[in-house]
Amino acid sequence: MKSFKDKVALITGAAHGFGRSLAIEAANRGMKLALADVDESGLEKTFYDVKNLGAEAISIPTDVTDEAAVDKMVKQTMSKYNEINLLINSAGIAIPGPIWELPTRDWEWILHADLMSQVWSLKRVIPIMRKQKGHGDILNVASMAGLITSPLMPAYYATKFAVVGMTEAVEYDLQAAHANVGLHVFCPAFVQTDLYHTEKHRPEKYTDNSDPYYSSETFKEGQKQAKIDITTGMPIDNIPKIIFKALEDDKFYILTHPGMNPAIVARANNIPSGKGPDLAALAPFMAETHEVEGDNKDER
Ligand SMILES: NC(=O)c1ccc[n+]([C@@H]2O[C@H](COP(=O)([O-])OP(=O)(O)OC[C@H]3O[C@@H](n4cnc5c(N)ncnc54)[C@H](O)[C@@H]3O)[C@@H](O)[C@H]2O)c1
C-alpha cells in the first residue's frame, strides 16, 4: 500500500480549512511539510501545530494569485527538501454575485486564486515529480461546483468547472507520457471551514473600496448566505482521512456528499437531449449538500 511516511507534502491554503486539516493529517502520517498561505498569522499557527506533532516543516508566506510567488514557493520547498511527493492545491476563495453585478476584478481574483494558482503549481511541480524516483501525487481542490451548477455564483462555478476539466485533461497527458504522477480532484459540497472569510484574504490588487458594489445589498446578502452555507455544512473532522484513503486507493474524483450523486447523473443525462438547467428540478438536490459519504456515516 502507498505510504506517505517521510515523504514531502507541499500544501497551499494551509492556514485554514481543508489545507490546514490536511497538513495536520499529513504530520500525523510522518510527512515533511512545506506550508503556504497568504494569511501569515494563520500559517504560523498551522506551522507550530504540525511542529508540535513532531513534523519537520517550513512555512512559506505566499499569495497564490501571483505566479512569481508560486514559483518562489516551489523553489523554497525544493531548496529545503530537494523533492516534492505530494502537492495539495487547497488555497482558494468563494465569490457570490450575479454576472450582471459582480465587478470584473472579482472574476480576475477568483480565476487567479482558484484556477491559475493550480495551473502555475502543476506547471512547475509535475516536471520535478517526473524527474524523481517513485510516485508523486497531486490533489487539486475543486468543488461539487465543478460537477453541477446552481444559482448565484457563476464566477465560482466557472473556476471549479475549469479546475475539474483541467485536471482531467492533464491526467490524459500524464497517462500518455507514462508519467509517475497521479492526479486527484476533490469535489465536496458544503463543509465547515473558514471559506466565508474570503474577503479577509482579498489582495490589494483586487481591492477598490470606491466601487459601490461592495456596499450593495447583493454583496451583503451574498456574504450572509455564504456564512450560512459553510457553517451548516458537513463537519470537517473526517475529511482528511477520507482524502488520504482516496489518495492511497488512487481515486481520481474524491467525493464526500453522496446525496449529490443523482444531480451529477441528471446533469450528464440531460446534456445529449439538449435539456438545460431547471431551477425547479434542482431544488430537491440542494437539501443534500450537507450529507456525508455513505461509507463514513458512522464516523461522524
Ligand atoms: N468549505 C466548503 O464548503 C468547500 C466546498 C467545496 C470546495 N471548497 C474549496 O476548498 C478550497 C479551500 O477552501 P476552504 O473551504 O478550506 O476555505 P478556508 O478559507 O478555510 O481555506 C482557504 C485557505 O486559502 C487561503 N488563501 C486564500 N486566498 C489565498 C491567496 N491569494 N494565496 C494564498 N492562500 C490563499 C486562505 O488564507 C485560507 O487559509 C477552496 O478552493 C474552496 O473553494 C470548499
Question: Which features characterize this protein?
Answer:
disordered C terminus; Rossmann fold; 300 residues; 11% strand; alpha/beta; single chain; 9 helices; binds nicotinamide-adenine-dinucleotide; 7-stranded parallel sheet
Weakly predicted, low-confidence segments = 292-300
Q: Specify Rg, calculated over alpha carbons.
A: 19 Å
Number of helices: 9
Shape type: globular
Q: State the end-to-end distance.
A: 26 Å
Q: SSE order, as H and E?
A: EHEHEHEHEHEHHEHH
Helical residue percent band: 40-55%
- The CATH architecture can be named as 3-Layer(aba) Sandwich
Kindly provide the name of the CATH class: Alpha Beta
Task: Give a short account of the largest sheet.
Answer: 7 strands, parallel
Folded structure, characterized:
The structure is a single chain. This protein is of the alpha/beta class and 300 residues long. The protein has a single domain, classed as 3-Layer(aba) Sandwich (Rossmann fold), CATH 3.40.50.720. The chain is 46% helix and 11% strand. It has nine helices and seven strands; from the N terminus they run E-H-E-H-E-H-E-H-E-H-E-H-H-E-H-H. Strands 3-2-1-4-5-6-7 form a seven-stranded parallel beta sheet, sandwiched between helices.
